[in-house]
Every structure is written in structure tokens, then in C-alpha cells.
Fold:
Amino acid sequence: MIGISPKFPLLFDNEVGAYSLNHTVSEAVRQNFKNLLLTAPGERIMDIKFGVGLRNFLFEQNHPSLHSAIAQRINDQKNMYMSFVALEEIKFNEGLEDIENQDALENILKVSIYYSLGGSSPVEVLEIMASSQLQLNL
Structure:
């Protein structure tokens, strides 16, 4: 079966050939968007402006001003590198009410990005949660 792009991380696939592949535009866009969010500015060779660099925000105070700075960075990078994606909404720390240790909430940052590919395509959600233990959950 023909794919659109290699799926990261690169894994050998006996069925497809050398690597597992993204088979839909939605899968490829999701992977590229995740790459844009996690790449730090200056990390990509030949394009030092590429990347939101969410890891750079890990030890900042979890405050609404930080949320607006992250949202602005996401929007700017999306407009520059993925202008075909329509950002519907960016939410912070949504759905964390069920965590047993409520004191730990100040050490968790969850970013939920609602986006679509324009037209009549459904809204998709990309969630990234970072905690003070340097864990990123995608």
C-alpha cells in the first residue's frame, strides 16, 4: 500500500517495506503538527525559526500569562509553516479535575489544540501533557 510520508519514529515494517507509513492526510498533518510543537527554535538545521519549543516552557510558572504566550507562539508557527490548518481553539489544563493529588496540578501543563484541515473536515484534537517529572504525554 502506498503511503504519504514515513511515520515517526521510524520503524521497520515487513508489509509496507522499509518503514511504517502515514496513509492519510490527517495522520501526516497530525505528525507534522506534533513535530512543529515539540521542535525547539534553532533545533532544525537550515531553519532556525521553525518550532514552538513546548519543552522550553516546562519550568515556567503555570499561569494564564504563560498560556497566552504559548497560544500566541503556536498560532504564529502554525501560520508560518502550516497555514492550511485552521486552529479552532487552544485549551489549557482541560480535564485535569479527576487527578487524585490536586496539589500536583500546579506542576502539570496540558495543552489541547483543536484544529481542522479546512472546509468540511472534522475538528481533531492534539493533546500534549507535560509534568514536572519531565514527562511528555502525546
